[in-house]
């Protein structure tokens, strides 16, 4: 896995495909790593250049100070894109990662050739009911509890060796990232500001069985962006694990559409 040092920031990322191909940058959600995108990478047409960083505090990416705000994560992403010579890319996010790519686009819309938001974060701020630090601490301390919670966000994903590898890697998230992300998602509430991104091609993908980022959250996000909204049947919070073929087909068709006018 390649890495980049920028001051106190060390970013690690995964890559796949044609180095000179159409660039796609994939940003994972909370409680996981870039490994979350492997089923998508395995199915993505080779003509794309796919890049998936570990967010700070996850995988092998670390940084001082311990700032896990959405704006800081977006700044980290900009650092990586600049280092890779990618001024503008197709941005793909999952859950927390959708907040990161939207924040980057709000700061500089020219960086986004398009936006694909999978199980999007709450555009009006994380509901108070999900701000439960004690549950996060228990998950951090107990792998079995964490594994059960992880299964809850990907209820139909195969329970195979890869899934177990992903659970183990995700559970290594830095404790400070775990706790700080609760506040970050509560405080990130762009709401109507997202309408400023009108004109950037956007696709929102929801899972019909997602109890966290519901189809209503997806519909609200799509309305704010003027985006197309796709609901994948019989899928929970993780279409990239539960229905990767469907997600890749949607993404491939969408990314090609803007270029074709």
Automatic annotation (TrEMBL):
Q: Which InterPro entries match?
A: AB_hydrolase_1, AB_hydrolase_fold, AB_hydrolase_sf
Any one GO molecular-function label of the UniProt entry: monoacylglycerol lipase activity
Name the Gene Ontology biological process terms.
acylglycerol catabolic process
Its keywords, alphabetically, are: Hydrolase
> Which one Pfam family would you cite for this protein?
Abhydrolase_6
Domain AB hydrolase-1, residue spans: 24-249
Q: Which GO terms describe its cellular component?
A: membrane
Regions annotated as coiled coil: none
The answer to keyword Hydrolase applying to this record is yes
Q: What is this protein called?
A: Alpha/beta fold hydrolase
